[in-house]
Specification:
The complex is a heterodimer. Chain A is α/β, with parallel strands linked by helices. Chain A contains four helices and seven strands; from the N terminus they run ααββαβαββββ. The model of chain A has no long low-confidence stretch (mean pLDDT 88). Chain B has a single domain, classed as Ferritin (Up-down Bundle), CATH 1.20.1260.10. Chain B contains twelve helices and no strands. The chains are: A alpha/beta, B mainly alpha.
Chain lengths: 164, 291
C-alpha cells in the first residue's frame, strides 16, 4: 500500500453515507476524523455524533464494507470521543444538502442547549418556504440529532438538525 | 426461574467476567456503577414508548432513553476493556480459578445482560417505578440535575476516557435537565390535581436522593478527582430554586431526612429483579443471539 492507496481509500470513504440522512456523507457530517496507514493496517478514526446514535454502528459496518469490496483488508476503525463532535464540523456543502433534503441545517454558531428555562427557541428558517416564522414544537424529534419545528407560513412541520 | 439458575451455575458471570485484580477493581466498579445507572434509567423510561401522554412527549422521553443508553454503552465498553486488560495480566491465576478454561472476555453485552441483581451498582432512584407522568418527570429531573453536576466534574478527570465520555454526554444532559425542569414547573404549578400528584411523587422519590452524595468505597478509592458530597450543596440550591418556581416544598422542609442507600453495593429494591428479568430474558433464553 502506498500514497495512491490512501487517495483511493479517502475516495471510497467519501461515498459512505449516513443511513438515516442518505444525502450526507460521513465527511459532510464531520465524523470522519483521520485516515492513515500504519504498518499495512488502515486506521480510521471516527467521532460519534450523539452518544446513543444507532447509525454509528451501521456507518462503521459500511466503512468496513466499502473498503473490503475494493480488496482492502486489515482495517481498524476507532471511535474517538474527544474532542467531542460538534455541528461546527459539518461542512457547508453538508448543510446545503440537508436543506435541499428538507431538514433545516444547524445554525452557524454552535451552541449547547440554552440551560435557561422557557428560553426563546433559536430562530430557524423553514427549509421548504424560507420563512422565518417558525415555532419549536419539541427539542426532541424523530432522531437524537433533530428537533421538531413547524412553519407558520406554509404550515409544514420540519426537522431541525440541532446545534450540538 | 430455571433458565437463570442454569446459566449462572455454568458460567458464573458475576465471577467469571469480573476482574480478580484489586487495582483495577475500583475503576471497574465505578464504570459499572455509571453504566448500570444510565442503563436502568433508560430501560425504565422506555416503558413509556407508545404510552406517553402526548406524542411529542412520548418522543422526548424515548429520545432521552436513547441518550442514556448511549452513555451506558460508552461506560460498559470502557469497563469491558478495563476488565479484559486486568484479566490478561492475571491470566495464570484466572485460569486456575475458572476450571482451566480461561476467562471469557467481557463485553458491553455480557456486562449488561448477564449480570444479576447483586452485581448491579445503579442508584436506587433509577429503579423506582415510573408511576404517573409527574413521577417520571420528577425522577428524571432529580437525577439529571445531579448527573449534570457529576459530569461537569468527571470532564476534568485525569482518566482521559472517562473525561471524554462525560464531555460528550454533558451536552445531551443539558437538554434533559431543561426538559424535565420545565415539566416540573408546569405540573407543580399547574392544576390542583397536577400539584397534588407532584407532591406525592416528591414524597415517594426524595428518600432516594441522598444516595447520590454518599460515596461507595470504590468511589473513594477510584480517585475520581473530587469529593462526591461536594455536589450536594450546588444540587440543593438548584433544586430549591426550581421547587420554588414549581410551588413545591423546599428541600429544607422535607418531612423526613432518612435516605435509602445500598444500590451502589448491590443491595437493591425488589424492583430491579423485575426490570432485569424483562431486559435480560432474550439473551438468557437464546444466549449469544444477535440481530
Amino acid at each position: 500500500m502506498n500514497e495512491n492507496s490512501l487517495i483511493e481509500i479517502r475516495q471510497l470513504l467519501s461515498t459512505v453515507c449516513d443511513p438515516e440522512i442518505p444525502v450526507l456523507t460521513i465527511a459532510d457530517l464531520g465524523i470522519l476524523r483521520e485516515v492513515k496507514i500504519v504498518d499495512q493496517t488502515i486506521e480510521i478514526n471516527i467521532t460519534p455524533t450523539y452518544t446513543g446514535c444507532p447509525a454509528m454502528d451501521m456507518i462503521t459496518i459500511n466503512i468496513r464494507l466499502a473498503l473490503i469490496e475494493h480488496g482492502y483488508k486489515n482495517i481498524l476503525i476507532k471511535s474517538i470521543l474527544s474532542p467531542a463532535w460538534t455541528t461546527d464540523w459539518m461542512t457547508e456543502a453538508g448543510k446545503e444538502k440537508l436543506k435541499a433534503y428538507g431538514i433545516a441545517p444547524p445554525n452557524a454558531t454552535p451552541s449547547v442547549c440554552e440551560p435557561k428555562l422557557f428560553a426563546e427557541a433559536e430562530a430557524i428558517q423553514c427549509p421548504l418556504c424560507n420563512s422565518w416564522h417558525t415555532n419549536l414544537v419539541s427539542q426532541f424529534g424523530s432522531t437524537a440529532c433533530k428537533a421538531l419545528y413547524q412553519c407558520e407560513d406554509c404550515l409544514e412541520p420540519f426537522d431541525y438538525f440541532k446545534c450540538h | 426461574m430455571n433458565i437463570f439458575n442454569a446459566i449462572n451455575s455454568d458460567e458464573s458471570p458475576n465471577d467469571a467476567t469480573l476482574s480478580p485484580n484489586h487495582h483495577s477493581d475500583n475503576k471497574e466498579a465505578l464504570l459499572l456503577h455509571l453504566a448500570d445507572t444510565t442503563l436502568i434509567l433508560s430501560q425504565r423510561n422506555t416503558a413509556w414508548c407508545g404510552h406517553g401522554p402526548i406524542l411529542e412527549q412520548d418522543i422526548a422521553i424515548t429520545n432521552i432513553s436513547l441518550d442514556l443508553l448511549g452513555q451506558a454503552r460508552n461506560f460498559y465498553q470502557y469497563a469491558a476493556r478495563v476488565i479484559n486488560e486486568a484479566n490478561a495480566l492475571n491470566s495464570s491465576t484466572a485460569e486456575i480459578a475458572n476450571t482451566g478454561e480461561g476467562l471469557k472476555k467481557a463485553s458491553e453485552d455480557s456486562l449488561a445482560y448477564l449480570r444479576t441483581e447483586r452485581a448491579f451498582k445503579n442508584l436506587l432512584l433509577v429503579e423506582q417505578p415510573n408511576g404517573d407522568w409527574g413521577q417520571t418527570i420528577l425522577r428524571q429531573y432529580l437525577f439529571s440535575q445531579f448527573q449534570y453536576l457529576l459530569y461537569q466534574q468527571l470532564q476534568q478527570s485525569n482518566d482521559q476516557q472517562l473525561a471524554a465520555i462525560a464531555e460528550k454526554a454533558i451536552k445531551e444532559v443539558i437538554y434533559h435537565v431543561r426538559w424535565s425542569s420545565e415539566w416540573v414547573i408546569r405540573l407543580g404549578d399547574g392544576t390542583p390535581e397536577s400539584h397534588a400528584r407532584m407532591q406525592l411523587a416528591l414524597d415517594e422519590l426524595w428518600p432516594y436522593t441522598g444516595e447520590f452524595f454518599m460515596p461507595a468505597e470504590f468511589e473513594n478509592k477510584a480517585s475520581i478527582g473530587f469529593e462526591l458530597d461536594s455536589l450536594k450543596q450546588p444540587w440543593l440550591e438548584k433544586v430549591s430554586e426550581l421547587f420554588e418556581a414549581a410551588t413545591l416544598p423546599s428541600p429544607n422542609s422535607m418531612k423526613s431526612t432518612f435516605m435509602q442507600t445500598g444500590g451502589k453495593t448491590g443491595n437493591h429494591s425488589e424492583q430491579l429483579g423485575f426490570i432485569l428479568a424483562e431486559m435480560q430474558y432474550l439473551q438468557r433464553t437464546y444466549p449469544n443471539s444477535v440481530w
